[in-house]
Amino acid sequence: MGQSVVRGWTDRDTKAFLKTPVRFRHDLVETGVFSDEALARLLETHPDELTDVNLNEFNADGMAVVRTGTRGGLDGHSLLRAAKEGRVWINLRKVGCSDPKIAPLVDQAMADLQAANPGFRPVTVYANLLLSGPTTRVPYHADTPGVCLFHLVGAKRIWIYPNQGRTLPDEAMEAVALREGTEDLPYRSEFDEDAQVFDLSPGQAVLWPFNAPHRVDNLGTFNVSLSVEFMTWEGRLRHGVYYANGTMRRRFGLSPAGYARTSAPGRLVRWALTGLFKRFRVNAAREAVFKADFDMAPGARDSVQDRAAA
Question: Which of 13, 35, 150, 256 could form a disulfide with 245 if both were Cys (CB 3.0 to 4.6 A apart)?
Answer without folding.
Answer: 256
